[in-house]
Write a structure and sequence with these properties.
Length: 132
Amino acid sequence: MMRLLLNLLWFVFGGWLSGLLWILSGVLLAITVVGLPWAFAAFRIAGFSAWPFGRQVVARDLHTGREDLGTGGVGFLMNVVWFILGGWYLALSHLMLAVAQAVTIIGIPFAVQNVKLAIISLAPVGKTVVEV
């Protein structure tokens, strides 16, 4: 029940916008042939950023028990490109939001979710979101 309440509050006070912006980013990446490999990561982040409570980000190979695209050398290179072209400033923006939210006691659970979003924003390829 608490997870549902926190997710509803998160969604109403900005989660919908965050998810929508990640979806828009994924669509823009998908339109370009070059950005298509990163579009799937953006869509995964969109779902997580709209409804984060009760979910966590894990490495895909740890979750499935097998190596998939994005968990080896190719995934590492894709994450390096992602980090250089945009991941660092996305993570920085989530960290700045987390600091602002952590100032109040009420905002601490939301700050924790923004830290999770910052972590996945750094290197999303090879990661998946699972229920806790």
